[in-house]
Amino acid sequence: MQKKKVGVLTSGGDAPGMNAAIRAIVRSAELEGYEVYGVERGYQGLIDGEIKRLTSLSVTDIIHKGGTFLYSGRCEEFRTPEGRLKAKASCQKFGIDVLIVLGGDGSLEGAIKFSKLGIPCIGLPVTVDNDVVSSEYSIGFDSAINTATEMIDKIRDTARSHGRCLIVEVMGRDSGNLALSVAVACGAAAVLIPEIDGASSEEILIDNILGRKNIGMHGLLVVVSEGYKNKHRISDLIAKKVGCDVRTSVLGYVQRGGSPTAKDRVVASQMGEFAIRLIKKGKLNRAAVVIGGNIVDVELDEVLRPREGNTMDLYGLMNIVSK
Fold this sequence. Notes:
Layout: E1 5-10, H1 18-31, E2 35-39, H2 42-48, E3 51-54, H3 81-94, E4 98-103, H4 105-115, E5 121-125, H5 141-162, E6 165-170, H6 177-186, E7 190-192, H7 199-214, E8 220-225, H8 234-242, E9 246-250, H9 262-281, E10 286-291, E11 294-299, H10 313-321
Helix pairs in contact: 1-9, 2-3, 5-6, 6-10, 7-8
């Protein structure tokens, strides 16, 4: 009987925990007698045939490392039907039976389209923004929270020493999940997120900063998602309405880097093993998601649709603890 061959690729923005997931995929697959092939540079590498055999030795000593040892990236060519047909030809050349895709919205959308060509796919949500809406949690999110919190704690010391208001921009183009968690963790005076973009959130911002300033608090902190539309006017707004010295800091790609936290290593390992279990059961074209704290599978076609009861509980908490 021919061995089942499983391909794995990491696509889009890298995130801590990707290596831990690949490690679990390889070692779980070997126990089932499967062969694993790693695709380098995401979908572009799939198109170009940059594929290599992975073994337990290949994934030794990578669980604690950030980024992805398979490399990642975005691929415009794969967005075209012609590009996806080239990728399919690569899978057929190497005999890949199932492709496991690690990534965020764009990567999983690519997996959905690719599966329509007859190459079964398994999706694992990986993004520091935690914006795969069908899942409560994405690999890399906890690491990004911890990195951003650590950085803000350091630069906030300077803001406090000079009595300034510090505005810190964190990642989150379309989602405020990271900003909300970081704001709560850092004790921010306010948070601005894409989901609530406008005059009402700015009124809350000014009220909270004035309230803290009036009772003698120094080193005030505002956390802003990169996707907040009016972020460029916030500094002038605070200076005008509150009358304090304002400084802005953009954390940028540091949030994607560094070793994954213990939580991300564990969740990534669980998802990687879960993916192989799905393949063993013949449950293909599925995605692993976290619902109710448990890893479960949903139809790949459904992975980008919001789950029921998806709320921003932390925004309500911010309005309580930021007073």
